[in-house]
């Protein structure tokens, strides 16, 4: 079982300059190999990834500056090109394009030369680099990728760990155990038959609503920073394209986007971790996000909430813990059906936040009613 921990680095100026050099070297290798592939493809000759790598190794001898670089960065860049070509051949993606200056900065290095001790990591040819946290997984390192997001540099370290056993006796330290299983991936044994099955309804006004009335608020990060983002983007549009001032302003815009993403991810992780404490099963709805985004009045709010990302985190953590998830059919009317008498209210609109049943007179919050219906559906699946 391979798990990846993305750790923020704390490099100095020289180390940051080195990272930029390796990213540029990886782009140079990628573009050089792609140019060779295009030339041979025009003459009906298909070059494999190994042929491209050999041609680049011969070509780089003419450039003395390449000798001081991390050669694994170029090798993995050519390998990535080979994967892109395979995807193009299988019609899973378009034909690969040349990488431009100033685009995504990342490169992969030799995992065998990487050492991690506490809050620092040793990288090939650059030495020790400080990190903001320790590696949370224990096992064999499979790959190490360095990348830049806004003003931060990250090391994505993939580690081969033992899969959890999904069985553990109930105890008062369940919360601490849950944190350890999610972050460390240590094998545990769980018996979840004593825990209840819950229903979860996701939405825009509240990120998630449980069947017992517990709600998790939507941070609405984009709405909070939308005005500031517009102002900085207007400044960026006034700069001379690809000038130094344009790059400086682009970094400011990137940092705002990065803050929005961090706020959203933080809310998602806290909510999903809290939901999964003491749960034996979950019932969720099947969302057609592509169809929902066609509503221009709700598209921005739906994108800001990132409901698909929230459900994906919930599924991934539940799968790690061995918690079954029961997905309702996409045509299941969880909001329109009454949770007491199962009567369907056809004239329910999005503006009706309180569900009033015309058959039995039940008055209940709309989201709680949907969560109860999903819980009932999940409980029925669990019994069968």
Tags for this model:
single chain, 384 residues, alpha+beta, five-stranded mixed β-sheet, four-stranded antiparallel β-sheet, 43% helix
Task: Explain the overall architecture.
The chain is of the alpha+beta class and 384 residues long. 43% of the residues lie in helices and 18% in strands. The strands form five sheets. It has a five-stranded mixed sheet with strand order 12-11-10-13-14. Strand 6 and strand 7 form a beta hairpin. Helix 1 packs across helix 2 (49-59). The longest helix has 32 residues, at 244-275. It is elongated. The chain starts with a strand and ends with a helix.
Mean pLDDT: 86
Number of strands: 16
List the secondary-structure elements in sequence, H or E. Answer: EHHHEEEEEEEHEEEEHHEHHHEEEH
Q: Specify Rg, calculated over alpha carbons.
A: 25 Å
Task: Describe the structure concisely for a colleague.
Helix content is 43%, strand content 18%. The protein has 384 residues and is an alpha+beta fold.
What topology emerges from the helices and strands here?
Elements: E1 2-8, H1 13-42, H2 49-59, H3 71-89, E2 106-109, E3 115-116, E4 120-123, E5 127-130, E6 140-149, E7 152-160, E8 167-168, H4 174-183, E9 189-190, E10 197-202, E11 206-210, E12 215-217, H5 221-238, H6 244-275, E13 281-284, H7 289-292, H8 299-305, H9 307-321, E14 325-327, E15 354-356, E16 363-365, H10 366-383
Parallel strand pairs: 8-9, 10-13, 13-14
Antiparallel strand pairs: 1-7, 2-6, 3-4, 4-5, 6-7, 10-11, 11-12, 15-16
């Amino acid at each position: 079982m391979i798990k990846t921990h993305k750790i923020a680095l704390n490099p100095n100026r020289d180390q940051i300059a080195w990272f930029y050099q390796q990213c540029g070297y990886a782009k140079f290798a990628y573009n050089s190999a792609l140019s060779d592939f295009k030339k041979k493809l025009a003459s009906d000759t298909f070059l494999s990834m190994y042929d491209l790598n050999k041609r680049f190794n011969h070509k780089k001898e003419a450039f003395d500056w390449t000798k001081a670089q991390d050669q694994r960065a170029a090798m993995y860049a050519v390998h990535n090109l080979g994967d892109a070509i395979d995807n193009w051949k299988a019609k899973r993606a378009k034909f690969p394009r040349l990488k431009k200056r100033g685009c995504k900065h990342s490169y992969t290095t030799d995992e065998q030369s990487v050492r991690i001790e506490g809050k620092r990591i040793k990288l090939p040819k650059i030495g020790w680099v400080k990190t903001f946290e320790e590696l949370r997984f224990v096992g064999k390192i499979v790959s190490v990728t360095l990348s830049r997001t806004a003003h931060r540099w990250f090391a994505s370290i993939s580690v081969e760990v033992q899969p959890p056993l999904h069985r553990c006796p109930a105890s008062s330290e369940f919360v601490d155990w849950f944190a350890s299983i999610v972050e460390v991936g240590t094998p545990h044994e769980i018996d979840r038959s004593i825990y209840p099955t819950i229903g979860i309804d996701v939405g825009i006004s509240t990120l998630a609503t449980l069947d017992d009335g517990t709600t998790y608020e939507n941070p609405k990060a984009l709405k909070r920073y939308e005005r500031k983002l517009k102002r900085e983007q207007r400044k960026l549009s006034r700069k001379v394209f690809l000038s130094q001032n344009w790059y400086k302003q682009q970094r400011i815009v990137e940092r705002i986007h990065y803050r929005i993403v961090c706020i959203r991810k933080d809310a998602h992780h806290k909510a999903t971790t809290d939901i999964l404490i003491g749960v034996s099963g979950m019932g969720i709805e099947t969302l057609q996000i592509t169809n929902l985004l066609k509503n221009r009045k709700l598209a921005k709010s739906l994108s800001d909430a990132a409901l698909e990302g929230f459900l994906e985190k919930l599924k991934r953590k539940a799968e790690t813990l061995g918690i079954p998830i029961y997905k309702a059919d996409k045509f299941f009317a969880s909001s329109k059906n009454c949770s007491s008498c199962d009567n369907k209210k056809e004239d329910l609109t999005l503006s009706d936040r309180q569900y009033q049943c015309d058959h039995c007179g039940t008055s209940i919050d709309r989201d709680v009613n949907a969560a109860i219906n999903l819980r009932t559906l999940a409980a029925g699946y669990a019994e069968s």
